[in-house]
Amino acid sequence: xxxxxxxxxxxxxxxxxxxxxxxxxxxxxxxxxxxxxxxxxxxxxxxxxxxxxxxxxxxxxxxxxxxxxxxxxxxxxxxxxxxxxxxxxxxxxxxxxxxxxxxxxxxxxxxxxxxxxxxxxxxxxxxxxxxxxxxxxxxxxxxxxxxxxxxxxxxxxxxxxxxxxxxxxxx
Length: 171
Fold this sequence. Notes:
Elements: E1 22-26, H1 30-41, E2 44-52, H2 54-60, E3 66-74, E4 77-88, E5 108-111, H3 115-124, E6 134-135, E7 144-152, E8 158-166
Parallel strand pairs: 1-4, 5-8
Antiparallel strand pairs: 2-3, 3-4, 6-7, 7-8
């Protein structure tokens, strides 16, 4: 067996041996971020704890790390969001140069059933949309139409809401 193949003790991965487990978002106010992801995206709290000690120092390459951790989960999403609020060391806020065209992880997308209703809920909650629901101008495989919008979470992380439907979708 090559070093890239999973051993018989590994569970839950695709045939390639790799599946996406979670996406980490560093936040500046855990209560505010948890409320945002619960209220607007319908996620619920999973594991919660404080990360500290030699193991997290080793993993991050930082010293004296202490971070609050909350996993946000959904029964529909196999991937979890890991929210981390660093108590030590405290990081700098996201730069204003976080435009969608810059290299790196640019956004996290969530599938929604009714994009118009979802966007209305965001706006009623004081969340500014970068754009309203926007149709993708081509069909996806299987004759699927997609509409989407971008918006930011409380710490400036770019998020996408996407709706997929067969046939015609309005603009």
